[in-house]
Amino acid sequence: MIKKDLHIHSSYCDGNDTVEEIIKHAISLKMETVGILAHSYTPFDEEPCIKEEDIPKFKSEVNSFKVKYQDKINVLLGLERDYFSSCSNLGFDYIIGSVHYLKVNSSYFAIDDTIEKLMEGCKKYFNDDYYALCEEYYSLVSDVVNKTSCSIIGHFDLVTKFNEIYHLWDEKDPRYIASWKKAVDALIPYHIPFEINLGGITRGKKTTPYPSFEIIEYIKSKGGTFILSSDSHNKENILKDFSKYEYLLK
To answer: How far apart, in whole angstroms, are the C-alpha atoms of residue 196 and residue 200?
Structure first.
């Protein structure tokens, strides 16, 4: 039974619970390790991320609770660093590297915010060619370790967040498969674990984890490793469904 979850967001960014509320809930679950992180500051989209001026306070608060609760649980301070963020990695125990945006010329748009924004961005910048959009997304993912110096690769195929419901492209199409395989092949040599992320399931957007089962099997065939994460924005989702999906780590 897994007693560790390193992808939990607090109210410092787009989570709903305070740092201490998360820790107390993790203790009630008899967890061994809880990792609390913030979305790195992105000046072009400030709503979901930590405010730049709050970063020192976030670090200080989590570190103080490390000491306060050290006899009950191991608390880690993390950062989910977006590809386009210039936030420093200094002072964090670990970094999850993620791609949430595409940049075309000087414009950014989020691929996981709303279906409307994704469709608008694809129409405006990719002439409604979702395969071209995915190719651009995976080209960034292939570089995420180099760009962010992360220790965990976050939700590898986040671009599929709305595709299960809206069927914007065929995930069995050779062009799409070639784009994600190219990214996997580029990341494997770093020997950094890929995250099996259950956030899309708990938020009702998907019925399967990120990455897809097909991608997980391909990563395994290349010698890649995984960690299981909740990507929780509500403390009730910490460790949720871990027992159902922990077999994927084997």
So the answer is: 11
pLDDT tens column, 136-166: 999 999 999 999 999 999 999 999 999 999 9
DSSP assignment of 183-226 equals: HHHHHGGG--PEEEE-HHHHTTS-SSPBSPHHHHHHHHHTT--E
Q: Which 3 state secondary structure label does DSSP give 140?
A: helix
Q: Give residue-wise pLDDT tens across range 44-55.
A: 999 999 999 999
The candidate with the shortest Cα–Cα distance to 81, out of 25, 8, 19, 152, is: 152
Examine residue 211 and say whether the peptide bond preceding it is cis (omega within 30 degrees of 0). yes
Helix (H, G, I), strand (E, B) or coil at 94: strand
By C-alpha distance, which of 154, 164, 171, 174 is closest to 205? 164
Whole-structure pTM value? 0.97
Report whether 69 contacts 33 (CB < 8 A). no
Do 176 and 120 meet the contact criterion of CB atoms below 8 Å apart?
A: no
pLDDT digits (tens, 9 = 90+) for 76-98: 999 999 999 999 999 999 999 99
Helix (H) or strand (E) holding 58: helix 55-68
